From TrEMBL:
Belongs to the PPP phosphatase family. This is Serine/threonine-protein phosphatase. It comes from the Eukaryota. Pfam families: EF-hand_7, Metallophos, PPP5.
Length: 692
């Protein structure tokens, strides 16, 4: 009996170890595919940015159209935005049974919203726009780095990514309590995308922000970016929920996102940022950056930079003497001292007051010209503009340097190795090592960093000698049972206390084997990824099959697959799940690829080579479609398609007349309704692929 018990125990331990190893492998698959999609998004965006830089519009109308299409959110000035998103003109019908909002907001309004969203009710568009209008006004007065003290509340609760998962937010409030004067919260970005209730999360958080402005703090994440929203679902969600006023609501969200603070500092000792840091992260610069200029952190405006450099050098006292290489004289030093006539005597108060107002206005106009603010913008001073005026005599930074600072804190990840290097896995930000963390903490007298941005199996994870804490609040992020969510509470002693949870009720009832069954979906996603690169894989396999036997070793198979997909996965360990049969350690790669094709064709009855192209490019095609669909109507107008095709043809050196483009767009419009929907858009690529 004793020997039998030992054998059973050994068998059980081996079984649990195998399941744990499979769980870790599937986790790596999910994460690698997620990061490769983010990399594709940045590559696609860089491609469009390159086209924009190289394209020369033939007319002012064409230039304005292209600018509006690809620079969403930047064409509206203050007054224009207020007029465009006029919520007062929207009537609430008597038949509306959802929650009502009146300003200033009260705690009862927040409670009503929570109850309404639990019952799947929707807030009327008028109230959404009104809420966004008030939130924007509040955010504009906040500094880039919010300061929180534990002296005024017993503890501060820090939450990580929520990604549209409203059940997780409800569970946090149920376990920890609603925001109140004695219950402070910091939400560390990535409120939107991927999940289906991003809008409801934002409405709740903005409501509590306005009710308790000193107790609720919101940081910007890398998904609070309209270019990222085009790919990962928030844009689509808003347009589906608000078909009439969705475009206005999206425009306001885009503008509100760029006013979100960049970081939060607790007791001057704990810094909370969404992504991470780099070896060049400078909190002094981040304090003074005009954060609203970065509507999309993925896109940096380059054209105005050259015109600003002489002005910036002049402010810093670096104006070069003589002429430059082109023989152009260096820009004269711009002084911020009053250039008006000598100040009149203070005895004549009226005259002195008039002179003072004129002098101040001249300095404001000078500062506006230096920072590229047009005269059509309002007189209202924001926090960042006040800092700019106050510190006008201190060093100024180029837009490139400021953009790099914001990009790094939103997109970076920690790594166990020393140093700092480019984050090629995500495509943005950097990887920073423990030495970078140590120097940064010492420089600013900090105890540790709290960041989010990465899904963790337990909901949180320490690294860099417990100096960097990652907190992630979206449970079941990849699949049911894939991970826990967590939040952290900090008291006056700044010792972190964690609370973990699973928002899905069924996740608690799953056995370990059942949890692995759910995670098998990772292998399905990986097989789709392999199938989408069939052509490239065949070329890679043939390079190892020099005798044209149709067979390669499993070691060569693993090397070839990684060279094509570049996911950084342990392919030899994953082989049993991906390669079902081998002969004497050799793989017949053509039959293996045929099996992958059969698996995908069983889901969609399309030609195999064509299906491969669609699988590989569908996400990019959908993003391109949404970029072209400037008004987010779900349809591309003929004009939108024509202007975009001109952009592509200029890049590919294809000469097409307007008549030729018109014929092309009519041929794609299969149902002849004057617009192109997404299915017609995909069908056009399928027809192109089928052409000999």
């Amino acid at each position: 009996a004793f020997k039998a018990a030992v054998l059973i125990q050994q068998w059980y331990r081996r079984h649990v170890a195998r399941l744990e190893m499979r769980r870790r492998c599937t986790w790596r698959i999910f994460q690698s595919i997620e990061y490769s999609c983010e990399q594709d998004q940045i590559k696609l965006h860089n491609f469009f940015s390159y086209l924009m830089d190289q394209f020369t519009p033939s007319s002012s109308k064409e230039r304005d159209f292209i600018s509006r299409m690809f620079i969403s959110g930047e064409s509206y000035k203050e007054a224009e935005l207020e007029k465009y998103c006029d919520y007062e003109s929207i009537e609430v019908p008597d038949s509306y049974t959802g929650p009502h909002l009146s300003f200033p907001l009260l705690p009862d309004h927040a409670t009503a919203l929570l109850e309404a969203f639990q019952q799947k009710q929707q807030l009327h568009a008028r109230y959404v726009l009104n809420l966004l209008h008030e939130t924007r006004k509040h955010l504009k007065q906040l500094p880039n780095i919010s300061h929180v003290s534990t002296c005024y509340s017993e503890e501060v609760t820090v939450c990580g990514d929520l990604h549209g998962q409203l059940d997780d937010l409800f569970l946090i409030f149920y376990k920890n309590g609603l925001p109140s004067p004695s219950k402070s919260y910091v939400f560390n970005g990535d409120f939107v995308d991927r999940g289906k209730q991003s809008l409801e999360i934002l409405v709740i958080l903005f409501t509590f922000l306005l009710i308790y402005p000193k107790e609720v703090h919101l940081n910007r994440g890398n998904h609070e970016d309209h270019m990222v929203n085009l790919r990962y679902g928030f844009t689509k969600e808003v347009m589906q929920k608000y078909k009439v006023h969705g475009k206005k609501i999206l425009r306001m969200f885009q503008n509100v996102f760029c006013w979100l603070p960049l970081a939060t500092l607790i007791d001057q000792k704990v810094l909370i940022i969404h992504g991470g840091i780099s070896d060049t992260t400078d909190l002094d610069m981040l304090e003074k950056v005009q954060r609203d200029k970065f509507i999309s952190v993925l896109r940096l405006k380059k054209r105005k930079e050259t015109s600003r450099k002489p002005q910036i050098q002049a402010i810093n006292g670096e104006s070069e003497s003589g002429t430059d290489a082109a023989g152009v004289e260096a820009a004269p030093r711009l002084s911020l001292q009053p250039q008006s006539a000598q100040a009149p005597s203070t005895a004549n108060r009226l005259e002195f007051s008039r002179w003072l107002r004129q002098t101040v206005q001249e300095q404001i106009d000078t500062c506006r010209r230096l920072v590229d603010i047009s005269e059509s913008e309002p007189e209202e001073l924001t926090y960042s503009s006040m800092v700019s005026l106050k510190d006008a005599d201190e060093p100024c930074w180029t837009r490139q340097e400021e953009w790099k600072q914001v990009l790094d804190i939103l997109w970076s990840d920690p790594m166990p190795q020393e140093g700092c290097r480019e984050n090629k896995v995500r495509g943005g930000g950097c990887y920073f090592g423990p030495d970078v963390t140590e120097k940064f903490l010492d420089k600013y007298s900090l105890q540790f960093l709290i960041r989010s941005h990465e899904c963790k199996q337990e909901g949180y994870e320490f690294c860099h000698n417990r100096k960097v804490l990652t907190i992630f609040s979206a449970s079941n992020y990849y699949e049911i049972g894939s991970n826990r969510g967590a939040y952290v509470k900090l008291g006056p002693d700044l010792i972190p206390h964690f609370v973990q949870y699973q928002a899905n009720k069924t996740a608690h009832l799953l056995t370990m084997t059942q949890r692995q069954g759910f995670l098998e979906s990772a292998f399905r996603a990986l097989r789709e990824k392999l199938f989408a690169h069939t052509s490239a894989l065949i070329s890679a396999f043939k390079s190892y099959d020099r005798d044209n036997t149709g067979k390669i070793t499993l070691s060569n198979w693993a090397t070839a697959v990684e060279s094509v997909l570049r996911l950084g996965l342990p392919w030899r360990m994953l082989r049993p799940q991906l390669v079902r049969s081998t002969e004497n350690g050799m793989l017949e790669y053509k039959s293996w690829l045929d099996d992958l094709a059969m698996e995908q064709r069983s889901q969609e009855h399309i030609q195999s080579s064509l299906l491969e192209v669609i699988y590989r490019n569908r996400s990019n095609l959908e993003t391109i479609f949404r970029i072209i669909d400037r008004d987010h109507s779900g349809l591309i107008s003929f004009e939108e398609f024509q202007q975009t095709w001109k952009l592509f043809s200029s890049h590919m050196n294809i000469e097409l007349t307007d008549d030729g483009i018109n014929d092309l767009v009519r041929s794609i419009d299969f149902n002849k309704d004057g617009n192109i929907d997404f299915n017609e858009f995909l069908e056009a690529f399928r027809l192109v692929k089928q052409c000999p």
